[in-house]
Design brief:
The protein is of the alpha/beta class. The chain folds into 2 domains: 201 residues, Quinone Oxidoreductase, Chain A, domain 1, CATH 3.90.180; 136 residues, Rossmann fold (3-Layer(aba) Sandwich). Helix content is 28%, strand content 25%. It has 13 helices and 17 strands. The strands form 4 sheets. Strands 3, 4, 5, 8, 9, 16 and 17 form a 7-stranded mixed β-sheet that branches. A 6-stranded parallel β-sheet has the order 12-11-10-13-14-15, with helices on both faces. The radius of gyration is 20 Å and the shape is globular. The protein binds nicotinamide-adenine-dinucleotide (NAD) and zinc ion. The site of nicotinamide-adenine-dinucleotide has 30 residues, from helix 1, helix 5, helix 6, strand 11 and helix 9.
């Protein structure tokens, strides 16, 4: 079969690799039917994630059909159409029992395509398949479901739930990539009074408007601080969600929040941000951060089935699996291509 293989910083190839095999009784093998590329894959390709070694099959967002199950898999049978969660976790260690799947110490805690091979391939091994896959009802499309592998639970858990968005809140989201846009959709579930989205790219702000942002601010041209202050009687926002991952945008978030407000960091920071603790202290701010655990995936799937999540507009480009090299080029250059999520279908 073929897979998208990391070859070291800047190098990737769509190439022949061995078929995946069951290695543990709790594994399943899926045929990949729909798969996406994530900003995290670009971080890996840039060499920013040194624990990912050359030879690794990338990718952690897929929908597929079960073609084989290990003897310890109880809830799946061949032919089931499933969403594979981006996090593999044992389900029974002390962290998993708390829903902290990303911290699993029972042999999981892996992000697919990170320390184990991922899903950007024709077939893929999914460890702990009973816990790490979700059977899909017929009415949910592969394209909508694949957005629940990572970006929806990430924006919902690490952004909206950690930030405790409440009815009537003013919510600011800094960064309008797929994660920031998914945060607009999931923040809306809590009836905030106003959602402001800040990005430095005009086409991303246009997308934010389509997803329901009330106000957009073009960073670098407009002044985010005065825009947010004028909406909040000079106080600042109740909740600010960081969905970029730079020291500057994190510091902007702490400046935009009101006294007693909440900053929920979602961005992955390659460079450390500065914490001005004296300022955060005197203003009683709550700051949260974290890796997605995907404990919310079943709930998000229910909401998707019930028509409560409008994810239209998120997939901007579609390719066949054999077009992975070109799909990466398109995804990596959103200023030119206008790409949000690209989906490759088998
Ligand atoms: P993305 O690169 O597609 O989007 C980032 C957006 O930020 C872009 O639209 C860009 O124009 C904007 N931006 C960059 N610099 C800016 C600035 N100075 N001011 C305003 N806007 C600016 O990324 P994404 O896929 O949406 O992911 C967002 C972040 O979330 C990334 O850091 C990613 O690694 C992280 N992430 C975190 C988790 C987690 O578990 N916490 C999971 C997945 C992704
Ligand atoms: Zn991802």
């Amino acid at each position: 079969m073929k897979g998208l293989v990391y070859g070291g910083p800047g190098a990737r190839s769509w190439t022949e690799i061995p078929d995946p095999a069951i290695r543990d009784p709790r594994d399943a093998i899926i045929r990949v039917d729909a798969v996406t590329i994530c900003g995290t894959d670009l971080h890996i390709l840039a060499g920013d994630v040194p624990e990912v070694k050359p030879g690794r099959v990338l990718g952690h967002e897929a929908v597929g059909t079960v073609v084989e199950t290990g003897s310890g898999v109880g809830g799946l049978t061949t032919g089931d159409r499933v969403l594979a969660s981006c996090i593999s976790a044992c389900g029974i260690c002390r962290f998993c029992r708390d829903g902290a799947y990303g911290q699993c110490r029972g042999g999981g805690g892996w992000i697919l395509g990170h320390l184990i091979d991922g899903v950007q391939s024709e077939f893929a091994r999914i460890p702990f398949a009973d816990l790490s896959t979700y059977k899909l009802p017929e009415r949910v499309s592969n394209e909508a479901a694949v957005l629940l592998a990572d970006i929806l639970p990430t924006s919902y858990e690490v952004g909206v739930l950690n930030g405790r968005v409440r009815p009537g809140d003013t919510v600011v989201i800094v960064g309008a990539g797929p994660i920031g846009l998914a945060a607009v959709v999931t923040a809306r579930l809590f009836s905030p009074a106003h959602i402001v989205v800040i990005d430095k790219a005009e086409n991303r702000l246009q997308a934010a408007k389509m997803f329901g942002a009330d106000t957009t601010v073009l960073a670098g041209t407009d002044d985010p601080l005065s825009a947010v202050r004028s909406l909040t009687a000079d106080l600042g926002a109740d909740v600010v969600i960081e969905a970029v991952g730079t020291p500057q945008t994190f510091e902007l978030c702490t400046a935009l929040v009101r006294p007693g407000g909440r900053v929920a960091n979602v961005g992955v920071h390659g460079k450390p941000a500065t914490l001005h603790l004296e300022d955060l202290w005197i203003r009683n701010l709550t700051i949260t951060t974290g890796l997605v655990d995907t404990y919310s995936t079943p709930k998000l799937l229910d909401m998707l089935v019930a028509g409560q999540l409008d994810l239209g507009h998120m997939v901007t480009h579609r390719f066949g699996l054999g077009e992975f090299m070109r799909a990466y080029d398109v995804f990596a250059d959103p200023a030119r291509s206008g790409a949000l999520k690209v989906v490759l279908a088998g």
